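hey so i finally got around to running the thing on that chain from the lab meeting. sorry it took forever, my laptop kept dying and i had to restart like 3 times. anyway pasting the input first so we r on the same page abt which one it is
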Amino acid sequence: MFVELHILQNFAPSNLNRDDTGAPKDCEFGGYRRARISSQCLKRAIRACFREQGLLGCGYLSSRTKRLVEELTKRLVALGKPEDQAHRVAQAVVRGIGLRVSNEGLTEYLVFIGEKEIDALTQLCDGHWEQLSALGPATSGRDAKKSGKEALPSDVADALSHVLGGGKAADLGLFGRMLAHLPNKNIDAACQVAHALSTNQVSMEFDFYTAVDDLQPEEQTGAGMMGTVEFNSACFYRYANVDLDQLSRNLDGDEELARNTLTAFLRASVVAVPTGKQNSMAAQNPPSFVLAVVREGGLWSLANAFVRPVRADGQGDLVQNSIRALDRYWGQLTAMYGGGGVAGKWLCTTEDDVLEHLADARVGSVDQLVQKVSETAFQTTGARGA
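ok and heres what got predicted. didnt touch it at all, straight out
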């Protein structure tokens, strides 16, 4: 069973997701230049929303970090362990997992690790403190990983091999994990998130700005600083889907947690906004259209509704015409492929009289949409598994 999410969101002038030159990310689609927000940026905003709005308990969330040794050290010190010993033990344990750690105590790459997995590592260090604190200083250089594993007592090494199991972390279950040196600890993502693309053709704009030195003598003229910032304004089509069967597997079959995770993901996807240049632009624009579909299979991205860029015209503005284009494309797909496998669809929108093929799916609010999706998705999943 799958849940699809289709969102249309029109942003005021902004630079929400920058490339290596500081310009808003973009790409070519349908032969036209489009604004783009990367999937990584959207997922980061969603994960941040989980915490900020308390959509999921902290125990069911994860951190992406190179500072696992530092975090373990802090927790061990909080338990009353000497800091120098705590750092040495934490470093030995992280290397014992199979992760490479630099002399500065940083892992070789960012590790996506659940809160409960960090708790388990802390408890393991505390429970085997005498054995671990008796270890010599960690070996540096290329042999650090190997020597760290060999130095650990066999019972500790065995316990470590069972720690990285996901810890029923909701965001880890959604977005997955890849550990280059520990492929058996990888987690397949239950969620796919597309890059957001503008429904309209865009061109880059430049804001030339100057800043005045407040303490500059009156007889002096000119700016204390000047520069340029690139930005654009676009109506984005956003698409994501969640494989509920994979999500349930990632969460050890906990259906209640899977339901809460789906609900949190839907809510966060609607309200989360990337933070790039927001202090300068304040593009806090909520979506104008949200469509959710529960289906058995045959996933549909509706991006091709916008192969021909949408424009404002006598029929409507950019948002209204984007909704019409998506609605029309849904009608074309269902006419060609049928609607089999769709268990339900619901949408809410700020616009009136713009729907033809999806009019019967309209509900009054995001709350109603989330409730309908959750009820249908898990009722159908439960019936199929019975």
